[in-house]
């Protein structure tokens, strides 16, 4: 067996120039301006490397996923409206700042989306959370809706829709259809997602041109079983049961 080459040491915030980065560590470009991809910092790539590694055990998978989820929620909150708000500092000077405006809620697509709820709660204390249970058929990858329980005034709220994996886009599309049927305007929904496929993004953004997506990374594509590649396998299994 040939000895493995020593890993290249990447120092400092620049990581590597775009042209030097291995293909799989470059998020795929998409043409939709409603889609925001987190800044591709060395930290984020290192966190993604942890959770993509099949040898990462469950405790570490949860820990590193939660760190990325926190970054996603913080970025998602930047897409909500604010109003100008001036405060007085302890030294008696004005600070012309901002305040959040409007009511929000989270909606998780069960089961994997529930892993993102704590990250939202960490940023928005006592936020209301609704649930939609959608499961993808393991053979056909078609989504099936089993259950939903949503805040009664959801039509008056901004909705952070939570699901870490965005493969064909079928589950997310079905969840958005439920939200729209309850009166939530498309433009008041933010889909917060960890790893997307270009196919899923295209299906979704074409169907919902006003709905914003915040994701950490757009992967290369889907395999013959509609799993994201390189991906990280089944998120729900790795977070909850493996
Ligand atoms: C996974 C994932 C998404 C869906 C993505 O859930 O969490 O909901 O698949 O695939 P799609 O974009 O092709 O619809 P799954 O149905 O496997 O259930 P789980 O959350 O219980 O793992
Ligand atoms: N659901 C997952 O958890 N992973 C995939 O790659 C696709 C769907």
UniProtKB/TrEMBL annotation:
Gene3D superfamilies: 3.40.50.2020
Pathway per the UniProt entry: Pyrimidine metabolism; UMP biosynthesis via salvage pathway; UMP from uracil: step 1/1
Cofactor: Mg(2+)
Phosphoribosyltransferase domain: residues covered: 39-240
Record keywords, A-Z: Allosteric enzyme, Glycosyltransferase, GTP-binding, Nucleotide-binding, Transferase
E.C. designation(s): 2.4.2.9
Enzyme class: transferase
A GO MF term: GTP binding
Segments of this protein annotated with the region Disordered: 1-26
Keyword rRNA-binding on entry: no
Similarity comment text for this entry: Belongs to the UPRTase family.
GO BP term (any one): pyrimidine-containing compound salvage
Pfam families, alphabetized: UPRTase (PF14681)
Protein name, per record: uracil phosphoribosyltransferase
SUPFAM superfamilies per record: PRTase-like (SSF53271)
Keyword field contains Cytoplasm: no
N-terminal signal peptide: none
């Amino acid at each position: 067996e040939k000895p493995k080459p020593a890993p290249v040491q990447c120092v400092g915030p620049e990581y590597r120039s775009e042209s030097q980065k291995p293909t799989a560590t470059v998020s795929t470009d998409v043409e939709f301006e409603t889609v925001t991809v987190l800044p591709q910092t060395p930290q984020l790539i290192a966190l993604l490397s942890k959770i993509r590694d099949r040898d990462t055990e469950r405790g570490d998978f949860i820990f590193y996923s939660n760190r990325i989820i926190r970054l996603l929620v913080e970025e998602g909150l930047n897409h909500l409206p604010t109003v100008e708000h001036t405060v007085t500092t302890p030294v008696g000077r004005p600070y012309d700042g901002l305040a959040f405006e409007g009511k929000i809620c989270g909606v998780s697509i069960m089961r994997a989306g529930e892993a993102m709820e704590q990250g939202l709660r960490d940023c928005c204390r006592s936020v209301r959370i609704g649930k939609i249970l959608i499961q993808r058929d393991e053979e056909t990858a078609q989504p099936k809706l089993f259950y939903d329980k949503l805040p009664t005034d959801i039509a008056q709220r901004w909705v952070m829709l939570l699901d870490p994996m965005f493969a064909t886009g079928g589950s997310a599309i079905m969840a958005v259809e439920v939200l729209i049927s309850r009166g939530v305007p498309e433009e008041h929904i933010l889909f917060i997602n960890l790893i997307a496929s270009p196919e899923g993004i295209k299906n979704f953004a074409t169907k919902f041109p006003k709905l914003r997506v915040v994701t950490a990374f757009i992967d290369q594509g889907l395999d013959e079983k509609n799993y994201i590649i390189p991906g990280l396998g089944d998120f729900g299994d790795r977070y909850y049961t493996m």
